[in-house]
Amino acid sequence: MAELRWAVTSWRLAAAMWMRAATAYRTSFVLLAAASLLVCSLDFVVLLLMFHHTDRLGGWRLPEIGLLYGTAGIAIGVADFLLGTVDGLGERIRTGALDTLLLRPAPALSMVCAERFTLRRLARPAQATAVLLWALHALDLHWSWDKVLLLAMMLVCGPVIFGALFVGLSSVQFFWGEARELQNSATYGGATLLQYPPDVFARDLLLGVTFGVPLAFVNWLPTLQILGRPDPLGLPVVCRFAAPLVAAAAAGAAGLAWRAGLRAYRSTGS
Amino acid sequence: MELIELDRVSRTFTVRSKAGRLRRRRHEVRAVDGLSFTVRAGECVGYIGPNGAGKSTTIKMLTGILVPSAGRLRVAGVDPARERVALARRIGVVFGQRTTLWWDLPLRDSYELARRLYRIEPARYAANLERCVELLQLGDLLDTPVRQLSLGQRMRGDLGAALLHDPQVLYLDEPTIGLDVLSKARVREFLREVNAAGTTVLLTTHDLTDIEQLCGRVMVIDHGRLVFDGDLAGLHAAGRSERTLVVDLARPGPPIEAPGARVVKVAGARQWLAFPAEQSAAPIVAAVADRYPLQDLSVREPVIEDVIARMYAGAVGG
User: ABC transporter domain: from which residue to which, for each copy (chain B) (predicted)?
Assistant: First the structure.
């Protein structure tokens, strides 16, 4: 427990340093922040334009898709904000910067995840939160305790699952330096996938993102329950509540992958 | 007390090279090969050798960044690879060619982070900071962003950062590389003070002057093996190393004749005289000044690579 606390504390200390370093270039920070907000906002405009021509997509109305969009955006956004820079691992190994991080009395994962931390990456979760609030308002749902629980579950487990994907798949870079795209396609690609209803995708893909990369648990399955919709895969209802277990398992697997990678690095060097 | 102990430590790397269009050939390189030595607390040891000899690999194993392929390794009683984080609090590391300071932030911020990462008590931190500021003359630099510091200033900043937590061992990798004469002198002076205060120092360098002024003991590593362990005089004797007196005469002339020295090169009015490294240059200079129209002269220290090369030649020849 003390170890975990130190992992978080050391991450926070390093992240605060990066944040302070960014203020050395204030204008550039403001411009980049504005640009990311703009790009994020335009992202949802694409959906709005689509719905200009149709009022349903795969049988889902716009506010329903807004619920998916908002929860997916928050999940990837929060994970990316906290530890997204882990994807630069391969480059750090190549330049030898990882060795410098290993000299600090702190877990390597905390140090790598805190690298180039910036508040700018809050743009995505902020925009996703706005969309989510709008969707919840427009849906006019009949709230019951299980729906509240499912929503809270999505907001907590979603970031954990994406965080596990960031860390677990980045660990591959310990063995194969150019594996960055593998992780990027699962995380950023996966988040784009989750913005759309599962009904528009092929069955094989759905199986893949349920039992392979467990993206379906981030928001698809809980949202089906909240909206009272049928599951295109016909999975038992209990799966819709399984996100905490899946998130815990994914985080555990990611931790093991990271350890294995770091051990291999330290015993092979490069 | 033995602070660093290596017992037949080896480290191999697997290197893949292309062999044909698709095939890759793998072969093993021994960066460190059955290395054994101990360093007692309070020693200052120069760890030298040609490029690629295994110096950095050794340091990486001593800090716990790399796991040895074979052998036993202990620093301050612990296995570095197993207890990297705990050991990190007890050692200080300075890489001459890579700073650990935060580029865009004032030096003070990097120190403040060290205080919290190394959990240095406030009173001890204040005392150590004061000592570093005084000895390294950091007073004006503390509030300057690191990117605006000169190389010498940054090296002093790095040295300070490595010592705030009172490490038992200080590893230095080329601490004087690229520095001007004055900065080198300052760094050496500081290291002398640090060592005198009880910190064990292990430094790699290409500059024999660093060794001469700081280290009572030199270890030479080549091809991953320890080929010499002793004092500097012993190294010069083993390598039959020579210093060079460069003499500029008023006009070109025949080779200079001076007792104890021989001319190794003549180019116009400039001549190079070699003499044994342990011998004083003064009598030779006096003899030359006495008999030749002298304009200028300088003494060049032996180069590590040459000393080591001659040591091998000596070992093979005799």
Answer: 4-248
Nearest-by-CA chain B residue for A115: B102
Cα separation values, B41 from A6, B61, B170, B235, Å: 30, 19, 11, 23
Q: Say what the pLDDT of residue B16 is.
A: 75
Do residues B94 and A12 lie in contact, with contact meaning Cβ atoms separated by under 8 Å? no
Query: What is the distance in angstroms between the CA of the first residue and the CA of the last residue of chain B?
Result: 37
Per-residue pLDDT, B317 = 42
Q: What is the pLDDT of residues B282-297, one digit of tens each?
A: 999 999 888 888 899 8
Q: Pick A164 or B17 by higher pLDDT.
A: A164
The answer to whether B95 contacts chain A (CB < 8 Å) is yes
Q: What's the pLDDT at B312?
A: 67
Q: Give Cα separations from B8 to B29, B32, B84, B229, B308 (angstroms).
A: 17, 9, 21, 15, 22
Cα distances (angstroms) measured from residue B142 to each of A25, A249, B137, B154, B182: 20, 47, 10, 11, 20
Distance to chain A for B304, nearest Cα, Å: 26
What are the φ/ψ torsions at residue A252 (nearest 5 degrees)?
Answer: -65, -45
Quick: pLDDT tens for B207-265: 888 988 999 999 999 889 998 999 988 888 887 788 899 999 988 888 988 888 889 88
CA atoms of B55 and B73, how far apart (whole Å): 15
Cα B314 from Cα B318, distance rounded (Å)? 6
Burial class (CB in 10 A: 0-12, 13-18, 19+), A49: exposed
Residue B172 DSSP class: E
Determine if residue A60 is left, alpha or beta; phi over 0 gives left, psi from -120 to 50 gives alpha, anything else beta: beta
pLDDT at B37: 96
pLDDT score at B318: 38
**For residue A168, what are its two tokens?**
């677990």
Give me the architecture of the B2-237 domain, per CATH: 3-Layer(aba) Sandwich (3.40)
- The domain spans of chain B are 2-237, 242-301
Asked if residue B221 lies in contact with residue B47, where contact means CB atoms within 8 angstroms, the answer is: yes
- Residue partners of B80: CB distance under 8 A and separation at least 6: B61, B62, B63, B64, B73, B87
Partner residue facing B104 (CB), from A24, A106, A267: A24
Residues of A within 8 A of B103 (CB-CB) are 21
Question: Nearest to residue A10, comparing CAs of B219, B74, B88?
Answer: B88
